[in-house]
Amino acid sequence: MASAASPASFSLLPSTSSSSSSRRLSAPAAAAVVLRSPVRRLGFAGAAADSLLTAHVASKIREVVGRSGRGPRGVATMAKRSVGELTAADLKGKKVFVRADLNVPLDENQNITDDTRIRAAVPTIKHLLSNGAKVILSSHLGRPKGVTPKYSLSPLVPRLSELLGIKVQKADDCIGPEVEKLVASLPDGSVLLLENVRFHKEEEKNEPEFAKKLASLADLFVNDAFGTAHRAHASTEGVTKFLKPSVAGFLLQKELDYLDGAVSNPKRPFAAIVGGSKVSSKIGVIESLLEKVDILLLGGGMIFTFYKAQGLSVGSSLVENDKLDLATSLLKKAKSKGVSLLLPTDVVIADKFAADADSKVVPSSAIPDGWMGLDIGPDSIKTFSDALDATKTVIWNGPMGVFEFDKFAVGTEAIAKKLAELSGKGVTTIIGGGDSVAAVEKVGVADKMSHISTGGGASLELLEGKELPGVVALDEAVPVAA
Ligand code: AMP
After folding, report:
1. Which ligand 1 atom lies nearest to the CA of residue 303?
2. With a 6 A CB cut-off, is 61 part of the ligand 1 pocket?
3. How far is the CA of 402 from the centre of ligand 1 (A)?
4. Hey, which of 402, 406, 410 would you mutate to test ligand 1's pocket, going by the most ligand atoms within 8 Å of its Cβ?
5. Looking at residues 73-100, what average pLDDT do you find?
């Protein structure tokens, strides 16, 4: 208890009294921390002071979660046949329809500004090429309404050719006689890039006739487009009805291994960090993770809904007033599951939502009227970091603050750096898509993480425990004989 009882540990308790003695744990309160079931005691306790107190005894987590008896639960539910199982015997001379996610950002001059998605697609394509297959590569780009030149895949050809070390051909459409002619003349070990599959509205409607036309170009199917796997589109789901085998590409497989496998069957203690703007957009993720994690750290704009639900004033911070009951029920659920749910104990507040706003650090319980919380404070960073020190698996989704403004990026960047440090110590670190990916990239630690998801919506849905149609439709993994 020594660390928990030190004055420094309690200096930011949300006490309404400022006297130093009132900030210290009274003997009975201190005893309560020891006497009750340790993991449950560290779980969020409902009342504001109590809940925030839990953050300050995070060091206890190290002692207790290890012996909490929470064993591994579940197994990967989406074990699918992988492209890695296909050898030259399966692939030589075969036409393989590969759905990739090449939806890269382009500037006004059609230059690729971030080629991550192209690079991520390369291992699968190279495996197919080295085994003598003819790769028919399909992707969407942007959200075109019909044929829209600025969403053509043509600007991708040079970079794709460079990365693959061969000259990639490109078709002007994704179906039709011209495409069929190009396919017919493809030599083994070559790539034909089809035009943006969303130039046809039938793609997103998953129309069987369109899927059949796409499938008719090939002998078998590889889905490597994790970013669109949560959508049942013709090129992700529809084609599987006509092509056998239909298998997972290496990228898709890796996403499933981490976001489904490592999360369902984690090395423990397992922590999740969830941030972002609104609790409403993360309800599914929080609820699902509460079933799996030992520790849940919350940050970002959503924390103010939790504070308000506990009767704290939040000034002009972002609050979803219709989600106060939900916040309360999530806190109760965490408690009943024995999950240590930690809210930030201090916040960086601003006098306006702007990069050059005046700012100061206050305890979470002392946000004045007219000020808004835009980042987690230094005490919270320390508490969160201490809690993370105890973990063996961490998944992160959503920034801790308005990290687009440098002044309010400190919490998010500190978490990114902490995860990089933990990765170096053998902790499995998973960045679950969206803005947290941008944050680790901004800090320059992306390559340190165990896994960075390439799919925002798809990774969220997977973390919510949903099945992804583009994955479900693939062939089941063949069990290895014992
Ligand atoms: P999401 O897409 O839900 O993960 O939310 C990401 C967005 O949340 C980012 O654009 C952040 O600027 C925003 N955000 C994070 N913290 C706050 C906050 N305290 N107040 C308002 N917006 C926030």
Report:
1. 19
2. no
3. 5
4. 402
5. 84
Task: Return the bridge partners of 136, or none.
Answer: 97, 192
How far, in Å, is the centroid of ligand 1 from the Cα of 469? 29
Tell me the pTM: 0.80
Q: Is residue 258 part of a domain?
A: no
Q: Is 411 a catalytic residue?
A: no
pLDDT of 454: 86
Strand 190-193, strand 134-138: pairing:
parallel
Q: Do 104 and 114 contact (CB within 8 A), yes or no?
A: yes
Residue 254: inside a domain: no
Query: Known binder of ligand: residue 119?
Result: no
DSSP codes, 37-61: -HHHHHS--SSHHHHHHHHHTHHHH
Ligand 1 neighbourhood includes 277 CB (under 6 angstroms): yes
- The answer on whether 141 is annotated among ligand-binding residues is yes
Q: In what order do the strands lie in the sheet with 134-138?
A: 169-170, 190-193, 134-138, 95-99, 220-223, 246-248
111 labeled binding residue: no
Residue span of the structural domain in which 91 resides: 83-249
Q: What is the domain count for the chain? A: 2
**In this structure, what CATH number is given to the domain that contains residue 339?**
3.40.50.1260
Which among 212, 278, 352, 417 is annotated as catalytic? 278
Whether 280 and 429 map to the same domain: the answer is: yes
231: left (phi over 0), alpha (psi -120 to 50) or beta: beta
301 and 435 belong to one structural domain: yes
Q: What is the mean pLDDT of the chain?
A: 85
